[in-house]
């Protein structure tokens, strides 16, 4: 999952659950709804998604953009979609950045030496070969950095201390992640020589959370590391004693030339209008510390299994369900932006889009971005999902990071809010592994997306164009 999009989209709406659901307009015939309910029940006893995730995390592993694992993931996806019976399976080329993590270390030099658990932030430059040693200056966030005497940062390492708050809707992420994105660039503008941030995560494990920085043209680049939450506590304790605290950091991170990757696409053809599309999306890439099980292997497995279950239905929907496994979400949305550019000419054929990129946790709410006159169909969808605990949460869906790139083209979208209470314990860490995924919750997600996609693809009038974003 990239950046702070959660804060501006999903989490803001999820903070006020239970938005009044639009009244049912009998958008669907009784037999369509019965088929959707039957599909829901079949998904709840099918383990295709869980086994796909096992294979992806065990046989491919980390899938960082531009890495050999990324290339293996594309080959894996093409092979799996063909074996599962998808049609029109193909790869569409995407150019992705190639950043090499290398090795890194961080250690307290004084007043009391200790090694810290650290990881370079994505996009960071390395240190000199001998490392970098300086006194640290703590600030909570970017606002505090910009206030007061900024000369105090010259020649020092800035330590961002802000702690992410746990929340069911994940809203703490958007608040905390700003320092990861722009913290190094803003510190460099004030003369800092390096940056260390408290990991953007809610765990108490001694594992750092990586993630991408956001550099702009003209930025001075300085090394930037994340340290684990317990190590950030240690730094704060030493600073509280009022003595200067010195830190030594070493990193061999570097940029290499861009690399060719791909979006992987497969389809379940519609029975009447095969040229019209409902898109199910997830991102195939992951960070390199873990095996990307929750972020976003779960999404890949959920959406692939949902589309397959539709393909196995006694009656396929009117329109085609297109699965898109996007390249490089984590490092700049390369795949989603390429897809939106290359398919802009067929935007009118895209009836609805959805994305899974918040792990395999309990589904809680459905949100939409459709014309008001189409809300009756959304209400009917939600009613089929109500036994799974899904309520309606409003008509302000974002599409999330990847599918959200289709919204400016006028393509309607739906979001499925899930319980993010634990998601940021594992997010972007070495702990994001297969054992963290509950197979029952994964099946529930498959059931939700399969129902939504089947009903959207079978809705005879279609959803028109999306309301314009504000």
Structure, explained:
The protein has 470 residues and is an alpha/beta fold. Helices cover 33% and strands 23% of the residues. The chain has 15 helices and 16 strands. The protein has helices spanning 5-8, 10-14, 30-43, 48-60, 68-83, 142-146, 171-176, 178-189, 229-240, 293-311, 334-342, 375-385, 400-403, 423-426, 439-458; strands at residues 87-100, 104-110, 114-116, 118-120, 132-139, 157-160, 194-198, 224-227, 246-251, 254-268, 273-283, 319-326, 350-355, 363-369, 391-392, 413-418. The strands form two sheets. The chain has an eight-stranded mixed beta sheet with strand order 1-10-12-11-13-16-14-15, sandwiched between helices. The protein is elongated and about 75 Å long. 56% of the residues are buried. Mean pLDDT is 95; it is low at 11-17.
Q: What share of residues is helical?
A: 25-40%
The count of domains is 2
Biggest sheet overview: 8 strands, mixed
The total beta strand count reads: 16
What is the CATH top level name of the largest domain?
Alpha Beta
Shape descriptor reads: elongated
Give the CATH H-level superfamily of the largest domain: Zn peptidases
Report strand order across the widest sheet: 1-10-12-11-13-16-14-15
Walk me through the topology.
Layout: H1 5-8, H2 10-14, H3 30-43, H4 48-60, H5 68-83, E1 87-100, E2 104-110, E3 114-116, E4 118-120, E5 132-139, H6 142-146, E6 157-160, H7 171-176, H8 178-189, E7 194-198, E8 224-227, H9 229-240, E9 246-251, E10 254-268, E11 273-283, H10 293-311, E12 319-326, H11 334-342, E13 350-355, E14 363-369, H12 375-385, E15 391-392, H13 400-403, E16 413-418, H14 423-426, H15 439-458
Parallel strand pairs: 5-6, 6-7, 7-8, 11-12, 11-13, 13-16, 14-15
Antiparallel strand pairs: 1-10, 2-3, 2-9, 4-8, 5-9, 10-12, 14-16
């Amino acid at each position: 999952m990239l950046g702070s999009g959660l804060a501006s989209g999903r989490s803001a709406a999820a903070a006020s659950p239970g938005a009044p659901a639009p009244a049912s307009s009998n958008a669907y015939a009784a037999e369509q709804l019965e088929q959707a309910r039957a599909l829901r029940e079949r998904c709840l006893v099918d383990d295709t998604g869980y086994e796909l995730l096992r294979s992806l995390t065990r046989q491919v592993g980390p899938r960082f953009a531009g890495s050999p694992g990324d290339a293996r993931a594309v080959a894996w996806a093409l092979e799996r979609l063909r074996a599962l019976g998808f049609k029109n399976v193909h790869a569409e080329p995407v150019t992705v950045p190639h950043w090499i993590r290398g090795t890194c270390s961080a250690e307290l030099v004084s007043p009391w030496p200790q090694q810290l658990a650290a990881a370079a932030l994505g996009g960071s430059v390395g240190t000199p070969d001998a490392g970098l040693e300086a006194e640290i200056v703590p600030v909570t966030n970017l606002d505090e950095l910009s206030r007061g005497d900024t000369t105090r940062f010259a020649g020092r390492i800035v330590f961002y201390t802000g702690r992410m708050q746990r929340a069911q809707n994940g809203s703490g992420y958007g608040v905390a992640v700003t320092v990861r994105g722009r913290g190094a660039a803003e510190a460099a503008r004030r003369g800092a020589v390096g940056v260390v941030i408290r990991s953007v995560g809610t765990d108490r494990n001694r594992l750092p959370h990586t993630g991408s920085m956001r550099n702009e043209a003209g930025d001075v680049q300085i090394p930037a590391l994340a340290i684990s939450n317990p190590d950030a506590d240690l730094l704060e304790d030493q600073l509280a004693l009022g003595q200067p605290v010195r830190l030594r950091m070493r990193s061999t991170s570097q940029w290499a030339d861009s690399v060719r990757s791909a979006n992987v696409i497969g389809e379940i053809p519609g029975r009447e209008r095969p040229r019209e599309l409902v898109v199910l999306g997830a991102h195939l890439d992951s960070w390199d510390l873990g095996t990307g099980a929750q972020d976003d292997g779960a999404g890949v497995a959920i959406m692939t299994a949902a589309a397959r279950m539709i393909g196995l239905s006694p009656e396929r929907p009117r329109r085609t369900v297109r699965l898109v496994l996007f390249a490089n979400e984590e490092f700049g949305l390369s795949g989603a932006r390429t897809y939106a550019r290359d398919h802009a000419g067929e935007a009118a054929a895209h009836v609805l889009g959805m994305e899974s990129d918040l792990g395999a946790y309990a589904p809680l709410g459905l949100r939409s971005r459709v014309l008001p006159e189409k809300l009756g169909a959304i209400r009917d969808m939600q009613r089929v999902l109500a036994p799974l605990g899904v309520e309606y949460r409003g008509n302000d869906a974002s599409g999330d990071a990847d599918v959200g790139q289709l919204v400016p083209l006028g393509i309607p979208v739906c979001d499925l809010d899930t319980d993010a209470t634990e998601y940021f314990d594992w997010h972007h860490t070495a702990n994001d592994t297969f054992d963290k995924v509950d197979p029952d919750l994964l099946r529930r997600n498959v059931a939700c997306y399969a129902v939504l996609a089947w009903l959207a693809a079978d809705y005879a009038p279609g959803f028109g164009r999306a309301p314009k974003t504000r």
